[in-house]
From TrEMBL:
Listed name of the protein: BioF2-like acetyltransferase domain-containing protein
Tree of life domain: Bacteria
One Pfam family it belongs to: Acetyltransf_6
InterPro entries: Acyl_CoA_acyltransferase, BioF2-like_GNAT_dom, PG_Glycine_Bridge_Synth
Coiled-coil boundaries: none
The organism's taxonomic lineage, starting at the top: Bacteria, Pseudomonadati, Bacteroidota, Bacteroidia, Bacteroidales
Span of domain BioF2-like acetyltransferase: 154-287
Length: 324
């Protein structure tokens, strides 16, 4: 039986689907759909009337020197279920359709955070993508001692920060989330060089309709002022750190950035998650201060790759010659 693909552009049209991967979930689709600057599309593969795979595609509008451009990306390579077909066979259908759908409208297509670096290699190449080596940083948090592999200096910073009066909690009110967002916007984006979503995305964490097990915002306070925080999403047995920041220069003896990550790790451990992953570890051949910061929490560097395709054919061919 042939694989049939269906495209969903609105959350209200998506049927109930199996799956546990938050990065391909209807819940994440619904949040992105209501966040300015994002346009999600869910591709679903069917075998007859039975869903066997899904791929959440996220288009983001960027402003660059040449004007507004669009970038479409996917976390991982989709989610698959209810079939004896090989995952790569279904992925090939989804990838080919994804490429056809976006290659003209988006300047850059990207597949990031691949769990299996070699998954779908030949299908990416057949569709004109080029691979770039990337790094993941992943902590095992199921040991008896959460800080087993953590550096001694990092342990001292956590102890000093708490002793000097910093407190950590889960953000629940919209006011706290707004204060955290303003701090994040000021201290995070210029340092980590990553796009920061609109406030609407963070505001969803305070709504009653927000799925309890999907994610949390952790905040660090000192004398009622929010001086640090982090954002986590949870999927299967892993907690993913999406954003984190702290007012390190203003409060050097409180280590707010360190405490924000530590609280997220502690929460994940206490709620049964086995791994903690930092979602952005950067290129392996580029010095990256944020990667140095997160490695001191005791995680391991894992080599992976990201796949890219550029709209300009001449540039894409040049990059293929460089990276393949």
């Amino acid at each position: 039986m042939a694989i049939r693909l269906t495209t969903y552009e609105h959350a209200k049209d998506i049927p109930e689907l199996p799956g546990t991967n938050v990065f391909h979930s209807t819940d994440l689709f619904r949040i992105l759909e209501q966040t300015p600057g994002y346009r999600p599309v869910l591709l679903v593969a069917f075998e007859g009337d039975k869903p066997i795979g899904k791929l959440l595609c996220i288009t983001r509008r960027n402003f660059r020197l040449l004007g507004f451009t669009e970038k479409t990306y996917v976390y991982g390579v989709g989610e698959y279920f209810n079939t004896e077909r090989k995952r790569e066979e279904i992925f090939n259908e989804l990838l080919t359709y994804f490429t056809t759908l976006y290659k003209e409208g988006s300047f850059l297509l990207e597949f990031r955070n691949l769990e299996e670096p070699l998954f779908g290699y030949r299908y990416f190449r057949q569709n004109g993508y080029f691979p770039v080596r990337w790094l993941r940083v992943r902590n095992s948090i199921h040991h008896e001692q959460l800080d087993k592999w953590m550096s001694a200096s990092r342990k001292r910073q956590i102890a000093r920060g708490l002793k000097n009066g910093a407190s950590i909690e889960i953000a629940s009110s919209l006011e706290d989330i707004r204060a955290f967002f303003m701090m994040l916007k000021k201290y995070y984006s210029p340092k980590v060089h990553r796009y920061l979503p609109d406030f609407h995305l963070f505001a969803f964490f305070s709504e009653e309709s927000f799925p309890a097990g999907m994610g949390k915002i952790f905040i660090v306070r000192y004398k009622e002022k929010i001086i640090g925080g982090s954002v986590c999403l949870f999927s299967d047995d892993t907690a993913y750190l999406m954003f984190s920041a702290g007012m390190r220069k203003s409060y050097p003896l409180l280590y707010p950035g360190v405490l924000a990550v530590w609280e997220a790790m502690t929460y994940a451990r206490e709620h049964g998650y086995s791994h903690f992953e930092f979602i952005e570890a950067g290129l392996p051949f580029k010095k990256f201060s944020y990667r140095d910061f997160i490695l001191r929490f005791g995680g391991k560097q894992l080599s992976t790759r990201r796949w890219f395709k550029v709209r300009w054919n001449w540039l894409n061919r040049l990059l293929i010659r460089i990276y393949v």
